[in-house]
User: What shape does this take?
Amino acid sequence: MEKNPFSLSGKTVLVTGASSGIGRATAILCSEMGAKVIITGRNAERLEDTFKALEGDGHSKIIADLCKADQRESIVGQIPLLDGIVHCAGIGHRKPAKSLTEDDIVSVMGANFNSAVLFQASLLNGRKINKGASIVFLSSRTAEVPTIANALYSASKGAIQSYARSLSLELAPRQIRVNCICPAMVWTPLVLGEGVTEEELKEQEALYPLKRYGKPEDIANLAVFLLSSASSWMTGTSIDITGGATGV
Amino acid sequence: MELNEFITKFADQFEDTDPADITASTTYKDLDEWSSLIAFSVIAMVKVEYGKTLTGAEIRHCSTVEDLFNTIAAK
Assistant: This one.
């Protein structure tokens, strides 16, 4: 067989938040690159849509809400050893700082930080991660670049980056790599929530040097690279993927 | 939804503008303090107080406080 460091052939990869957006595109590309894929998501119907779009056999899907401890444990109890994990599950949020409530913090940090951190802990305690595996977290350019009404979302994405850097040190002895992806704007259901319309976003999109926002597939390509042996010497990093935008 | 109550809540989103300067016929984008941050505050207020999702585009398309009230009331 031809040598291909970018292949995921023979690897088992778990993708959270796979029912839409970046998670969905990542799951599909992983299957196309030869991985056995396990997808999780909250919405049964949309998860099934993703599942049907996977190429090849041997994939599985688990409907679960990662914010709930029993459902995290249930996933860990029914999956095989993993060579890759892409933590895509998350929610968007836009509100000025002075309007933030405790409920907002619980909901945004719960979905974007707590659930990924706790799920990762469960996977490690359940000994589900192979030596040499690659773990990818979806952070965001907003972790570094401020925009108004984005304080809580940005904080949640900054938190996951700091967490991931520490995790990379702890897992390095087993050659397990941990990296973050920091996209600028990507056309997903997440960016269209919270009172922002498509036409407003399109005006901003035109200002991007590459003249477009990202597509979920653009991010999936980077996720697959980070899962593959092509990135074997990369860990503890956060990679920007922005269409040339220096802001968000 | 009641117009005067909405005007009070709308005016509440401003820090330095005298609430007396904000009436049903005020063109809010002409207020010195108007900004995209205040637009986001209005969106958040409408969500909390009325359980409705107002968009940035709707805020841009409306002109007076009463226009905005009518847009929200029609949701």
Remarks:
- Chain B touches chain A at residues 36-37, 40-41, 43-45, 47-48, 53-57 (CB under 8 Å).
- The mean pLDDT of chain B is 94.
- Residues 36-50 of chain B form the longest helix (15 residues).
